[in-house]
What we know:
- The chain has helices at 34-43, 45-54, 86-91, 93-102, 129-133, 138-145, 149-160, 166-176, 184-191, 198-207, 220-230, 267-280, 298-303, 314-319, 331-335, 338-341, and strands spanning 9-17, 60-69, 72-79, 104-112, 124-127, 211-219, 234-238, 240-243, 253-258, 288-292, 306-310, 322-324.
- It is an alpha/beta fold.
- The strands form three sheets. It has a six-stranded parallel beta sheet with strand order 7-6-5-10-11-12, with helices on both faces.
- The radius of gyration is 21 Å and the shape is elongated.
Amino acid sequence: MQGHQGDDARLIITFFARARPSNAGSVSTLPGQDDFKAQSMACGPAFSQLIEHQVTPASLNLRNHHTLGSGIFQSIYTVSHPLPKPEKLRRHASIAAFEALHALEIVFDLVPNPPSHPLRPLKLAVFDMDSTLINEEVIDELARSINITSAVSAITTRAMNGEIDFEHSLRERLALLRGVKAGVWEELKNTVTIAPGARELIGYLRGRGVMTVVVSGGFAPMASWLKEQLGLDHAFANHLVESRPNDAHPYPHLSGDLVPEHPIVTPEYKRHVLDSLIQEHSIPVSETLVVGDGSNDLLMLGAAGLGIAWRAKERVQREAPQRLNGTTLSDLICILGGGIEDGNKC
């Protein structure tokens, strides 16, 4: 795609059919002639009219449309001031109705001062860990090791939905985990699974020179392990106190407490990590990506240039700037321009 000198911004709209083949090769359930019908819906007059009602028509110009994969399409507009707010576009009732009618999920991204090439400018990507880069909630796996899964999972669910304070819920759950063997981390490294598409997405970002970071309300041993597994640049997580054997627990074990010398990874601290990396490396906010699934991710999602709630809890789906419910994190490569770069494959 050719650049357009003087453009104020590029509005990138990526359409995902709710039912589409996965990377594993499952059969598509899109109706009719799959790609052509979905493409028509994405670029048709109805959607163009919706956008024109939300953006000053004179400032909106459709520059290109691409088929990125089966059931994945992207429209690129140039826009000038006043610039639209992507989160408001996503939440508008008419857009939600269009998504429901055509079984689509639509992600809106605004890129100020766009380059001539199709790649979205990006220098920093920050990810949550549990239920994002990995499939499990580590604290629930710890509970499983001493057969108290139900009690801990119930608190986890309420915390991730924002029903109770995160730090309070963390301390409450950790107290229940007092006595877990300190060697449990090695066991978990053999059972915890990396999320589909995570390796591909991180590999793609690393190939572009993007700094990749995990910041987790989970625990440092697993965050450090994941950092090594995926080749991430930084890992931030909670540190747990390990106690020596005693009468109640005649083996090295978790005390149920947090190490006081280390910060607790609260929602505020997650945003602090993002802000600190932005300042330390002089990164424009517009060139940052944040991906997470829980209510404790909302602050950093809202502070990023592009914040995407991935297969998120109900409240997070409503409040995050953008959301996507795919089966593979490699879908995000499409949003970032990777599909165009790689010959319309992502």
